[in-house]
């Protein structure tokens, strides 16, 4: 992996002439997790997709840049709420998808190492419909790691999981994505409080920076300061919505 | 028993048929009952088998060619905007024409032999195969394409590794329709001009007032079509994403 850069997005977005978000600045520190928290429809996914260079329904007027001045888009890895596993392909084939789509040979040793790390080595030849939701998201995580990109964009990847699986998945993601610049978009204050090196709340009014708890992510689920932060974030979301 | 419903339906249809014949008292050359038809079938079994073979060859070749042609066309349409603009309206236009009207011309161009019938079968299945598969190719889940884009995928690779596999269930439903239409195409071709095949045999029997033979040939065609449909259904099971 090339060194992870910081990223800044500055600008405004409109949909058919209507403002989606007013001019804002979102900064992501190099090698850290930035959690973008907000209610549904405020434009979180739009922000993430703009950084990834994916199509959005919005017109963006501004700039997106990496602190090292190199291009952002080719260095981005992407994970969404839907695990986006190809149903006809095995776990191994899904993890190796990027290489196959670029016409390269996948690095077999790396692939099996990654399957070990997400504890799916025994499931390598299964199809996605033989796996649980948590296992499927672990395949998606392995696929993302296989790409070895320094910038990782996560669009609510854990929100369809049950509480326990979600917490496990969060721990695993923090462990395996360490050192990369991560943007996690979420509507869950608890998730933002557990995972963010920095936490930004997005509402119609714009972005509000919130102080993260002192503990290092992933924070304990019963850490009092983390729980207090969760509460404060939820209060902020509710106030802004009113 | 899984075949019980099919057996029951067949028995019911035969009983209904016999009832109509008995109640109306229609003469045998207008509407023969199941028994004379069965007798005619048995007496002419060699002839029927021979003509069935011809029709089957026409249908199978037509099905294979039409499916390949439809597959290639759908891929071209899905990957080229120019092809969509130029070819798609034409495709719809040809579908609006009654293909039957083309049968005499095909006989003129391709002669009395197999090829005019094969061409007819190809024409009649080309559109359902093309349009089902094309629709499938254009409905690739957005998220798969997004993911591929973030992986700097090549266009060709996206087509063969994502769009085509995701569209296989649509192709399967096109092929299943084609299996039903192809025999109709071949028989129309035979009606217009042929010296062999079930369509020819039906015309011949009709002309000689051998209505029972006509029915025997027609029912043979029906059974052949149903079997073909079942075979194609079975063959496309995996493609359609169905569990065995
Ligand atoms: N492709 C699109 N075309 C038009 N409007 C869109 C499109 N995608 C999203 N929107 C609108 O933009 C707004 C923000 O969407 P999104 O960024 O997905 O929000 P979030 O991820 O915060 O829930 C929503 O009101 C949504 O309806
Ligand atoms: Mg969203």
Written overview of the protein:
The complex is a heterodimer of chains A (242) and B (244). With 242 residues, chain A is of the alpha/beta class. Chain A has one domain (7-85, 149-241): Rossmann fold, CATH 3.40.50. Chain A has helices spanning 44-52, 91-95, 97-101, 108-117, 133-147, 163-176, 189-195, 224-241, and strands at 7-15, 18-28, 33-38, 59-66, 76-80, 151-155, 181-186, 198-203, 206-210. In chain A, a hairpin with a 2-residue loop joins strand 8 (198-203) and strand 9. With 244 residues, chain B is mainly α. Chain B has helices spanning 4-24, 34-43, 45-79, 81-96, 103-110, 114-138, 142-150, 155-192, 198-207, 211-235. The mean pLDDT of chain B is 93. Classes of the chains: A alpha/beta (242), B mainly alpha (244). The complex binds adenosine-5'-diphosphate and magnesium ion. Adenosine-5'-diphosphate binds at residues 15, 20, 38, 40-46, 56-57 of chain A. Magnesium ion binds at residues 44-45, 155 of chain A. Chain B: Pfam families: BPD_transp_1. Chain B: It is a multi-pass membrane protein. Chain B: Its main location: membrane.
Q: Secondary-structure element sequence of chain B?
A: HHHHHHHHHH
- Tell me the domain tally of chain A: 1
What best-fitting shape of chain B do the alpha-carbon axes yield?
elongated
The rounded Rg of chain A comes to 18 Å
CATH homologous superfamily annotation of chain A: P-loop containing nucleotide triphosphate hydrolases
- Portion of residues in helices of chain B? over 70%
What is the CATH T-level topology of chain A?
Rossmann fold
Cα separation of the termini of chain A: 44 Å
**Distance between the amino and carboxyl termini of chain B:** 18 Å
Looking at the overall shape, the CATH architecture of chain B is Orthogonal Bundle
Q: Could you tell me the CATH topology label of chain B.
A: MetI-like fold
């Amino acid at each position: 992996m090339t060194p992870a850069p910081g990223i800044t997005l500055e600008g405004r977005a409109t949909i058919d002439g209507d403002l989606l978000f007013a001019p804002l600045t979102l900064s992501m520190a190099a090698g850290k997790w930035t959690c973008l928290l907000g209610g549904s429809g405020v434009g979180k996914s739009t922000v993430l997709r703009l950084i990834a260079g994916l199509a959005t329904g919005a017109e963006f007027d501004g700039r997106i840049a990496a602190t090292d001045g190199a291009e952002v888009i080719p260095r981005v890895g992407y994970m969404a709420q839907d695990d986006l596993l190809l149903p006809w392909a095995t776990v191994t084939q899904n993890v190796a998808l990027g290489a196959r789509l670029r016409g390269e040979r996948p690095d077999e040793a790396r692939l099996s190492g990654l399957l070990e790390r997400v504890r799916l080595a025994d499931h390598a030849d299964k199809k996605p419909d033989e796996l649980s939701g948590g296992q499927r998201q672990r395949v998606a995580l392995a696929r993302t790691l296989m790409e070895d990109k320094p910038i990782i964009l996560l669009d609510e990847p854990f929100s369809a999981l049950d509480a326990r699986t979600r917490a496990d998945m969060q721990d695993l993601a923090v462990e395996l994505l360490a050192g990369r610049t991560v943007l996690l978009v979420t509507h869950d204050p608890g998730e933002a409080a557990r995972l963010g090196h920095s936490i930004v709340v997005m509402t119609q009014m714009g972005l509000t920076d919130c102080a993260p708890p002192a503990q290092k992510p992933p924070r304990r689920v019963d850490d009092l300061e983390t729980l207090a932060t969760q509460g404060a974030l939820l209060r902020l979301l509710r106030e802004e919505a009113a | 028993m899984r075949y019980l419903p099919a057996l029951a339906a067949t028995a019911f249809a035969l009983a209904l048929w016999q009832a109509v014949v008995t109640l109306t008292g229609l003469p045998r050359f207008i509407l023969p009952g199941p028994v004379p038809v069965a007798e005619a079938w048995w007496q002419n079994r060699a002839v029927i088998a021979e003509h069935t073979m011809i029709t089957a060859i026409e249908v199978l070749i037509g099905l294979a060619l039409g499916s390949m042609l439809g597959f290639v066309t759908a891929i071209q349409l899905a990957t080229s905007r120019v092809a969509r603009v130029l070819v798609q309206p034409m495709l719809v236009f040809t579908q609006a024409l009654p293909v039957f009207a083309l049968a005499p011309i095909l006989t003129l161009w391709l002669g009395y032999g197999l090829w005019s019938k094969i061409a007819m079968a190809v024409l009649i299945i080309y559109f359902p195969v093309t349009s089902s598969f094309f629709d499938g190719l254009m409905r690739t889940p957005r998220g798969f394409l997004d993911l591929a884009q973030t992986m700097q995928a090549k266009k060709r690779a996206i087509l063969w590794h994502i769009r085509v596999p995701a569209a296989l269930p649509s192709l399967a439903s096109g092929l299943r329709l084609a299996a039903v239409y192809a025999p109709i195409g071949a028989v129309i071709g035979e009606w217009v001009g042929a010296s062999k095949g079930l369509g020819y045999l039906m015309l011949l029997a009709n002309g000689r007032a051998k209505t029972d033979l006509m029915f025997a040939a027609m029912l043979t065609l029906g059974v052949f079509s149903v079997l073909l449909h079942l075979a194609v259904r079975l063959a496309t099971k995996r493609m359609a994403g169905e569990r065995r």
